């Protein structure tokens, strides 16, 4: 039962083959047994979970269930959930219990009747590409416990890969859904900016952050996005658009599809074995009836430096609220108010968060704003324009998700720049606000390789269709790590 898709689980629950309480218990028992080694979850509350499952069973019995009612899900610990500890992977929020639900949590729990298995580990305040910056320790990749699962949604990715949960939520600021999905042999979708509400999602970089689904397949992601998406008046960046069924085109044939291959993604810098798997995927798409065309994203090489000006600038502003006054950690010993601020933040934040706050404060400071922040925003517009031009000759853009497979724990910890380059193929998508997704496309040295698909604005249904048809023709997404029965 634990390896079934969301659709299959929904059918089993509807047919009374299993109850939500029984299904949730299966996953809770696995978490209890396997999580100490993988460290995917930071908070589990069996009593709360089973109470939610019992309520879901009552909805099913009353005939008022939706398609995902009773299905367990893991929640990235960046989403506030009423009554649940919500830490953002940081010491400064290590004991914070959220007093309200994020919109995503509300939609899944209250509206859809899904069951929370707990909160998953993550890079501190979503800052990282390896899930090694968490106050609660690194997450281990189920494919190789000596390697990283990717970040910052690494806990969610590892939980699904180890089947501690059938699906999970993630957030993506510069690749934080797609990169861990790629490194853990999963499917993950970052929607168009504004499609999923950010209300109750603790902010890192407000103009880049976007919540999205993570699952074993494109079909799973489509079903989750149907629940997550929608206008929210409490979020000023939420877009008011008609409701969509993101699963409507899953089985549509790919004949006539034009796939753009950016020449900048197929040059130097990508591991040869990773590129070979991507090329095999391109060949499979051609067999499925799609055509390919070369496109260019000439400013994509500037995405990493632009991102690491804009994101830290926004982070330095967003994280100023964590000062020890209103909530979260407060330094135990201090002389005056200024001393309390400094000691609280020095003790409460980890090294990577401090690094980005300092960079952000610097680029926003008098005399440097025009030279750095304003210039980065201009580059951001150029990058977005490159995508607009590329989509004139193609329907979707394809390339690698990550330049390498999962690297070893500690391998890049001492070199922040090398760590930042892990997101070289994903960051431009966030800067442009476009939808993008990662899906399994093979293995290199026994480790998963992820394919990235990028769509035009609000083209999530097409992306999911393109991914689903590939997954119908291949079985990469069905492969499981050794030792995960």
Automatic annotation (TrEMBL):
The gene is gatA. GO terms for cellular component: glutamyl-tRNA(Gln) amidotransferase complex. The keyword ATP-binding applies. It comes from Azonexus hydrophilus. Coiled coil: none annotated. It holds the Pfam family Amidase. It catalyses: L-glutamyl-tRNA(Gln) + L-glutamine + ATP + H2O = L-glutaminyl-tRNA(Gln) + L-glutamate + ADP + phosphate + H(+). Residues 25-464 form the Amidase domain. GO terms for biological process: translation. This is Glutamyl-tRNA(Gln) amidotransferase subunit A. Heterotrimer of A, B and C subunits. Allows the formation of correctly charged Gln-tRNA(Gln) through the transamidation of misacylated Glu-tRNA(Gln) in organisms which lack glutaminyl-tRNA synthetase. The reaction takes place in the presence of glutamine and ATP through an activated gamma-phospho-Glu-tRNA(Gln). Its EC number is 6.3.5.7. It is an enzyme of class 6 (ligase). Keywords: ATP-binding, Ligase, Nucleotide-binding, Protein biosynthesis, Transferase. One of its GO terms (molecular function) is transferase activity. Belongs to the amidase family. GatA subfamily. The active site is at residues 76, 152, 176.
